[in-house]
Amino acid sequence: MTYRSIFRLFSSDLAIDLGTANTLVYIAGKGIVVNEPSIVAVNRSTGEIVGCGAEAKEMLGRTPANVVAIRPLRDGVIADFKMAERMLNYFIQKAHKRKSLVHPRIVIGVPSETTEVEKRAVLDSTYRAKASEVHLVEQAMVAALGAGLPVTEPSGNMVVDIGGGTTDIAVISLSGIVYSRSLRVAGNQMDDAIMNFVKRKYNLLIGERTAENIKIDIGSAHPLDKPITLEVKGRDLIYGLPKAITVKDEEIREALSECVTAIVAAIRGALERTPPELSADISERGIILTGGGSLLRNFDERIRSETGMPVLLADQPLASVVLGTGKMLENFKLLRKMSLN
Fold this sequence. Notes:
Layout: H1 3-9, E1 14-18, E2 22-27, E3 31-37, E4 40-43, E5 49-52, H2 54-59, E6 67-70, E7 73-74, E8 77-78, H3 81-95, E9 105-110, H4 116-128, E10 133-138, H5 139-146, E11 157-162, E12 167-173, E13 176-183, H6 187-202, E14 204-205, H7 208-218, E15 229-236, E16 242-248, H8 249-272, H9 276-285, E17 287-290, H10 299-307, E18 311-313, H11 320-329, H12 332-338
Parallel strand pairs: 1-9, 9-10, 11-17, 17-18
Antiparallel strand pairs: 1-2, 2-3, 4-5, 4-6, 7-8, 11-12, 12-13, 14-15, 15-16
Helix pairs in contact: 3-4, 5-11, 6-7, 6-8, 8-10
């Protein structure tokens, strides 16, 4: 019996992409069963969870005084230990259709520069959410695997995973990481930059969700073929009343320029530190982009113009990490080789 068929018997085993913005859960043989925002809504007075995932995101910025919407992860690591455990528990139960006696084996991707303390926080939270065994793997490695790169071959592969809290850059060859860098600049920092820009330029206060919508609708990393505008509603800081303004794509590009420049500079730094043989492979195969942040308009164009390398977007950028983690779940030999703990 092969490793794969043995693993299929343990269909309660899970692969989890515990992201700052979204959490995805994968079950061997079934695929992605949960894809929800990493948010928990809690009643302050009773400590009771009012909503989790998509339900809690709807409540962001709209809760009464006694209910607070919490993001348990910041910059790719656990910031609120207790809430992370409760959120994980909720997602594990949801993946297993609320069966409470399940104790799955779990594989989780973590950013490459995660400290021992941060890794311990992920392990502890997952064990407390009733996992029987937990394996940590590097996010960039599993993103490459999920994007379909031949990571086990003796050739250079470069992957850039732009998530919500971190951007992970890695050069991979022979199932190992030749160079890796984790940058705490990603989707959430882009949203913050848009909020600050609108506040500074228009004296308009907008929430996280509005900033994210602006980024998705008209955000870009490189000039667009046709200019686009968007009406934005928020609260006027001078008069305290609701107000609507129109913003242009070039203004948002200016707001995002610092974040985009930092990511591009880190990619160039990775290319400079790559051994020449592997550089030749990368220039042939290209840089692969994964993660939600890579969907920013013309990001590939900007990286291409600054590095001179071909740049490709993964087929399923938002799911690359969890799909790669799922492949590890089905190949125990590979998991043992790549596990961080």
